[in-house]
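The records we work with from here on pair a chain with its fold. Each token is a code from a learned vocabulary of local backbone shapes. A record is reproduced here so that you can trace the correspondence yourselves:

_____
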Amino acid sequence: MTDTPVEESLFQIIHSYHQYAAREGDVETLSLEELKALLRDNVPRFMESLGREKPYFVTELFRAADKDKDNQICFDEFLYVLGQLLRDYHLQYHRQLCAHYCAQHSLY
């Protein structure tokens, strides 16, 4: 049986996390620079939208995710980052649906 699209996506997220975590220092955690690279390389359209390419955005996201304040993001803390990304993508999805609906019904 082949993986479902969601299962494949989950595997890719885990793989990407470990690929970037292994770049420097502790191979089980992401530094700020590793997180920046992971986001820049893997979600470039998201990072370009709504000013997320600004240096402070990832720094603030990193600080919020780093619950134990050790300047590293473990996988459990990375789940917070993913939650923020998913929430923002979900909001963008709804904005697109609303814009499409409004355009179809001449609500602009």
Remarks:
- The CA atoms of residues 41 and 47 lie 9 Å apart.
- The chain has one domain: 5-81.
- The chain has five helices and no strands.
- The domain at 5-81 is CATH 1.10.238.10 (Recoverin; domain 1).
